[in-house]
UniProtKB/TrEMBL annotation:
Keyword Lipoprotein in record: no
Keywords: Flavoprotein, FMN, Monooxygenase, Oxidoreductase
PANTHER family in the record: BLR1330 PROTEIN, NITRONATE MONOOXYGENASE-RELATED
UniProt record similarity statement: Belongs to the nitronate monooxygenase family. NMO class I subfamily.
Pfam families in the cross-refs: NMO
A GO term, aspect molecular function: monooxygenase activity
Native species: Qipengyuania spongiae
Keyword NADP found: no
Protein name, as recorded: Nitronate monooxygenase
Amino acid sequence: MGREILQRLRLPVVAAPMFLVSGPDMVIAAARSGIVGAFPTPNCRTSEEVDAWMARIVAETADAPGLWAANLVTHSSNARLADDLAMVAKHKPPIVITALGSPAPAIDVVHSYGGLVLADVVNEKLGRKAAAAGADGLVAVASGAGGHTGSLSPFAFVSVLREFFDGIVCVGGAIADGAGVAGAVAAGADLVYVGTRFLAAEESLADAEYKAMVVNSRAEDLVVSPAITGTPASWLKPSLEKAGYDLSDLGAPATRDYGGDPAKKWRDLWAAGQGLHSITASEPLADIVDTLEDGWNAARERLHTFGRTQ
């Protein structure tokens, strides 16, 4: 399995795995709409719940034109990694995305059944490490991404990775429409993470207040800080203020720890990326994909006009 499996997709888009937001309904709707649907396994409180979610996704995407992916936290503080990897071996997601750690723990398991391992990276150094560890692809988490975010622009990051890596490159960060997807692919990406655009989708696990905040916010309503999790993340200012944070002094970075119950840090503190302007209502995910496709086709046509003989 390699790039060829991506050719079945309607659009080169991954509905990015979002903590406490992406669940089975979103993953299934994405795959049925012809893109990649992904969820983080920490969205499940137990490995038994991971088992149930994956079983449902497998059953309901068997004939889907798209794909699905499981997102694993491979940081050493994740005590449940071995159990979640056992679920991966059982249900065989076509794509496994590793985050906040080396992809190495997942590679043998996923490759044993022919799956692909993509590794989240936020800079060139981590990209080189993930490539050396045997990742099939790199997910360039760039500036403008929601949740844990990088600092390089999407275009610069793709260019940097392509200097040493010829595998699959997925890029995410402030890409929320079809034109952005086309631009990223033209710049050298194979896939594009789209997260924020799906936050308010009807299939999202986000509660009504979170969705309303996303609909009513713009990029200037974001702040990037490591004070919450120890890793720089992009947060909605109104959610931090509601939780009692002083935006003028968010404090020192927290200890980096992804074990225990991470939901305690995120349940009332809501993340988003710079694509907020594209969201005007809560709507079915399939309708969002239709809109992305319209923008994608229009962008392709604009690109095609250059160089034509008049």
